[in-house]
Write a structure and sequence with these properties.
Two copies of one chain form a homodimer. Chain A is built from eight helices and eight strands. By secondary structure, chain A is an alpha/beta fold. An eight-stranded parallel beta sheet of chain A has the order 1-4-3-5-2-6-7-8, sandwiched between helices. In chain A, helix 2 packs across helix 8. Chain A is globular, with a radius of gyration of 16 Å. At the A-B interface, helix 5 of A face helix 5 of B.
Amino acid sequence: MDEVKIIEIKQSVFKNNDEQAEHLRESLKKKGVFLLNLMSSPGSGKTTTLKATINALKDRIKIGVMEADIDSDVDAKKIAETGVKAIQLHTGGMCHLDAEMTKQGLDALNTEDIDLAILENVGNLVCPAEFDTGAVKNAMILSVPEGDDKPLKYPLMFSISDVVLINKIDVLPYFDFDVEKCREYIRERNPNAKVFTICAKSGEGIDEWTEWLNNEVREWKK
Amino acid sequence: MDEVKIIEIKQSVFKNNDEQAEHLRESLKKKGVFLLNLMSSPGSGKTTTLKATINALKDRIKIGVMEADIDSDVDAKKIAETGVKAIQLHTGGMCHLDAEMTKQGLDALNTEDIDLAILENVGNLVCPAEFDTGAVKNAMILSVPEGDDKPLKYPLMFSISDVVLINKIDVLPYFDFDVEKCREYIRERNPNAKVFTICAKSGEGIDEWTEWLNNEVREWKK
């Protein structure tokens, strides 16, 4: 396998991130590229979920992935194994990506032949929530072992996420995690959020989530 | 139970955090107060570990706790139930605490009658690693469901932690987590880090960890 391309992201010079994010979204709309911003804490299963998502969709739409990380390229290598285009973004210690940093990544990825570009954001429930990346939709993963009270503790992350994937439902018997209570907490913060329960490892629930995503991509390209 | 005291932390005006941290450590040494900075990602079991730690030590040393969080006071309430002094620090969206912010917390906690002050830092493996809080020791929790590869992905956090608590070992049978491999990854980043395997919920391993902590507090007070 070829080595994964690594991009060292530069800090943004722009003051108005919201404006930059709107510009980026408009330009993606013109090109017919759907950008998904995927967020979570470390260890919630982002890369495994991403691999399951890619495998479910790669024969129907063309996918490219940007793996953002402080360091290392382990995730991008795992994604490249699925056969889709994957690059690694190094943030140089920064705990989030903003729109201009995301644009640097998209330029390096080259979205000409891509329908769905996925940004795997830095593993963190705080900082990434504060910056609009220019994505069409924000998705986040909450894994069962993290606890059902996370919407109470990280309200901003849940309020800006269009989709919440509750992952690792295979270990529900071993943790005090109440799915209905968690859905209620999410609803309180964000009544419009779609919630899917999945097990990325076994594939449970992946069809429902990827059908939704596939429809969103098709709507965006109209 | 009385309501928990909530402190709204102000952003620091000091440029040189390392200098502020040294000042704070010196003043804690003079007062005989040991400050422990406890870090982890969201959902790793920080509050449960803290409760187990307090229950093991509270009859031998006087403990005070500062719960830092972006919002909410759920954790401080849980800690206050153990009978030790606990206050809540709101960071107003900031993803870490630096030395001056920690000092605001210690002033509000009032350390006059305290041997061990514990700062439960914001749930995040990135930002808190970058700022010396003035603590005597840094401890971090890595929980089994997060994966044994985290030392590779968050090297700074592991390299600045004096102690790593591998938590939730009761669920080892249900996850691909290799404790020996994890110890090796930690050693590569930080040969001096003490590693304890614990289950905060059942109390397994808590004695070994709290004995170590108790000795450190006694050494500091000499």
